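Researcher: Next entry in the queue.
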Amino acid sequence: MNETQFLQRIRKFLPGFFVKIHGGPMQMVGLPDLIGCWHGRFVGIELKVHPRKLTPFQENTFENIIQAGGIAIILTLRDHQVYANKNLGAKSLVFNVDEFSKNIMVEILNL
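Model: Structure for this entry, 111 residues:
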């Protein structure tokens, strides 16, 4: 599964309001793939397919989101398993990509 297919699978289960960010020459570097609002809080979600990782620009953006009181989530797909990490912390959630649901997304947001 590539990143576009991963996005399509995840997107339909997002609670709140989210939009896909499409990069361009006039856009700030490092923005997450999805930005939105959930229960009044800003949320940035970056999708990665293993072995890709956050770039230094993305790490800096995530640190800024966290410092501003927002939520920063990285969802990494590896061997049909999704590894969810919130706010660059040590806590992660692991689940099968086929079992992804709105309940799992809410659980990730509440990590």
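Model: Residues 3-17+34-109 form one domain.
Researcher: Noted, moving on.
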